Amino acid sequence: MNQKKPRWDFFLFLMLGRMLLAQVSAESDTLTQSQQLSLNQTLVSAGKIFELGFFSPRSSRSLYLGMWFKNIPGQRIVWVANREDPLQASDSDAILKIGGMNIGYNTRSGVKLVLWSWQAENDPSPGKFTIGLSVEMPPQVFTWNNYSRPYWRGGPWDGGNFLGIPDDEKGYASDINVVVNKQQESAFFSFNNFNVSDVIIMVLKPSGLLNMMEWLENLNEWHVFWEAPANPCDVYGTCGPYSVCDMGKSPVCDCLRGFVPKSTDEWIRGNWTGGCVRRTKLLCEISASGNATKGSESDNFLQLREMKLPDHYTYFYDYEAQICKEWCLNNCSCAAYVYPDGIKCMVWTSELMDVQQFPYDGVDLFLRVAYSELGIQFPIIFRRLKLISVDLSFGFEL
Ligand SMILES: *[C@@H]1O[C@H](CO)[C@@H](O)[C@H](O)[C@H]1NC(C)=O
Ligand SMILES: *[C@@H]1O[C@H](CO)[C@@H](O)[C@H](O)[C@H]1NC(C)=O
Ligand SMILES: *[C@@H]1O[C@H](CO)[C@@H](O)[C@H](O)[C@H]1NC(C)=O
Ligand SMILES: *[C@@H]1O[C@H](CO)[C@@H](O)[C@H](O)[C@H]1NC(C)=O
Ligand SMILES: *[C@@H]1O[C@H](CO)[C@@H](O)[C@H](O)[C@H]1NC(C)=O
Ligand SMILES: *[C@@H]1O[C@H](CO)[C@@H](O)[C@H](O)[C@H]1NC(C)=O
Known about the structure:
The protein is mostly beta strands and 398 residues long. It has five helices and 26 strands. The chain folds into two domains: 230 residues, no CATH class; 151 residues, no CATH class. The N terminus and C terminus are likely disordered. InterPro entries: Bulb-type_lectin_dom (IPR001480), Bulb-type_lectin_dom_sf (IPR036426), Pan_app (IPR003609), S_locus_glycoprot_dom (IPR000858).
């Protein structure tokens, strides 16, 4: 774990905490370096939960050393030692290299652990997709395509949840644990303590789909209780910069309030990747060019509720809410700020990417717009009404 260069570990599954192979150290289930594991031999972990041995995936002749649940039918492989280097049937030697079953990074020591998908259902060699934590504070969980292209973003960790994953009663959050250390510039993600009677695993499929599933003993089957991406809005960047994806609308993409499509033609054709641009210049932009007229009303913030926060934030962990807002207002490149519990001040000084409207469990995003945009979405007839009850009915932050 102390090596300097980034280290990529090829774990297919993340397991609940205590299952680690450290358990394969009781006398009867230990293999020492001088011993060999024969092809028809297996080791069983001390807790009798996992079995280690050689296997061939369905319709494959390659041989891998792997680990599966001893008492769950179907030999669900949870870990493979030699993913890039299958053995021929004649090889009987195998070297075990087993690390901790977690993902994350430590900037100081240069360690980076990701979970890597299989190439195909019957081919454990590393595939196209990885899941890991982004190297930033607070960290976000991502799946990436081709090592670096974001495919799905779970949003920033607030100490108890990833803010980009709305949590209903079924709750993924009680099963996971993220340890963030600002001083060490490190963050690691793992499952909470393993409970034999409650087997939960996370699987990154060759297609990039991330599943969390539990073993239902009475039904004798795996039940997928959570997956991502679950809909087009979950796919990173579906709608382009300064737009918002809403599964409850058709089409799913719309510009953020105060913004218009960058290319109306593309937008109408259903190509949303170009995103949107400001309809009305900000006063700070006009002032910077020396063109502001005296008495112009200054820019302000629209409060957008239940949002999936944009990507690419800057974090001020010690700013109070008012300071956070003022910082944003005083910097013309600041397009939005938020102040969620557990995280506090985050601001955006680059384009707002991958924003989503959640039906519930989102965060209030304060979006900077020109003064004249504050009420523009309402029909003229409501203007007077709006002026009377602006902060009550429409949720503006004034
Ligand atoms: C395992 O395989 C070896 C040689 O391939 C054989 O001698 C041995 O009897 C086998 N053991 C079992 C339990 O099948
Ligand atoms: C994957 O990334 C590499 C460089 O990081 C690039 O050369 C290659 O074209 C990419 N492949 C695809 C399918 O995007
Ligand atoms: C494990 O789960 C079972 C059933 O959900 C529960 O009764 C038990 O207390 C749990 N054990 C631990 C150590 O959390
Ligand atoms: C979508 O629009 C972008 C620019 O907005 C363009 O570069 C891209 O080629 C378009 N894609 C399709 C499939 O038309
Ligand atoms: C200022 O306003 C004038 C007149 O509207 C315009 O011609 C000029 O381009 C503006 N300057 C800048 C820097 O926007
Ligand atoms: C505004 O924010 C940008 C990005 O963080 C920074 O580079 C710039 O110096 C800031 N400007 C002011 C006036 O603080």
